[in-house]
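Tokens for chain A. Residues wanted.
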């Protein structure tokens, strides 16, 4: 269980990144990437379902949890650079990625550019966005006040983990991240370059990642698998932890591509 008590910091040029590890140091590394305005605790519902034979690394992305926001603009490209800095710091030669929401968006970027990724799992993760998509207006309209109304405990919890942090600034930075249409943002068609076994998961009621967009991602990533989880929304790990945990565990133990028709 991740608890923000037993981890370490990686110091970068303008920030420090908090991370925790569990499992077997000699095992295959699994890097967990959480969602926007979340933290490594996003994976608490499923972490105990990942076999101890793996070496599991979970981090608080820039500005989140116990990691500082720093001075650089918050972009998916910057998240990618921070994650790859941690991977290099830990000396990981090959590894697998599990990303939820924003974490999966970054994972798509990494896997499309890096042969060291041996397996990829994304949960509720968009791969492109457009002002014409309903999700764009939802994301663009998020304010600190709105977030606090939905999650009243969020500012207090954030302040406890990150006393020097600015919750309002983090929310505003995330909105800019979510609506970034530049090359520093969503991976878009670069996901066609992903060669590792890939499992795409979404909750059946996910209001950000539509069924058609998830299916389109599967079409673009050769040999990828797709699971639509019933009785779950965007936070599928929280809504259906046993189902997600079973699928994740099975895939990690035997990552594979599905055979497509000739």
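Reply:
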């Amino acid at each position: 269980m991740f608890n923000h008590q037993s981890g370490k910091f990686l110091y970068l040029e303008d920030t420090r990144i908090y991370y925790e590890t569990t499992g077997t140091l000699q095992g295959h590394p699994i890097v967990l990437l959480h969602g926007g305005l979340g933290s490594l605790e996003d994976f608490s519902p499923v972490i105990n379902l990942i076999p101890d034979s793996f070496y599991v690394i979970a981090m608080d992305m820039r500005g989140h949890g116990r990691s500082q926001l720093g001075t650089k603009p918050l972009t998916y490209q910057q998240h990618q650079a921070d994650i790859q800095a941690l991977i290099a710091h830990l000396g990981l030669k090959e590894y697998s990625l599990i990303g939820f929401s924003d974490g999966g968006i970054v994972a798509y970027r990494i896997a499309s550019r890096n042969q060291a990724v041996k397996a990829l799992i994304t949960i509720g993760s968009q791969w492109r966005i457009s002002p014409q998509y309903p999700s764009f207006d939802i994301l663009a309209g998020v304010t600190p006040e709105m977030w606090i109304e939905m999650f009243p405990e969020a500012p207090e919890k954030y302040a406890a983990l990150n006393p020097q942090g600015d919750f309002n600034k983090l929310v505003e930075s995330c909105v800019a991240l979510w609506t970034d249409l530049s090359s520093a943002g969503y991976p878009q068609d670069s996901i066609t370059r992903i060669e590792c076994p890939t499992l795409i998961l979404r909750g059946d009621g996910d209001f950000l990642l539509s069924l058609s967009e998830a299916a389109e991602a599967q079409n673009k990533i050769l040999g990828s698998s797709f699971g639509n989880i019933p009785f779950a929304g965007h936070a599928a790990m929280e809504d259906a932890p046993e189902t997600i945990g079973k699928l994740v565990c099975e895939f990690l133990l035997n990552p594979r591509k599905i055979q497509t028709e000739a």
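Strands lie at 8-11, 16-23, 29-33, 55-59, 95-100, 117-123, 198-203, 225-229. DSSP finds ten helices and eight strands in the chain.
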